[in-house]
Design a protein that fits this description.
64 residues; alpha+beta; three-stranded antiparallel beta sheet; 1 helix; 22% helix; elongated
Length: 64
């Protein structure tokens, strides 16, 4: 199971990160995981405003 977290950056772009976490993960933890991943990369600084991020859950398809 993974979550998708979209962060707005200073260049006006939106960067989306996949965060692997359990179903009961806290939104703030998901946000900070994506934010620190973005911060370590070469992209312009992302907004650190939690309410500017979009977070949604994705489920990996089960293999049969």
């Amino acid at each position: 199971m993974f979550w998708m977290v979209a962060l707005l950056a200073e260049d006006g772009m939106q960067y989306v990160y996949r965060v692997y976490a359990p179903d009961d993960a806290l939104p703030a933890d998901l946000f900070w995981a994506a934010f620190h991943c973005h911060d370590d990369g070469p992209h312009p600084r992302a907004s650190d405003r939690f309410d500017a991020a979009e977070i949604w859950r994705n489920r990996q398809p089960q293999q049969i």
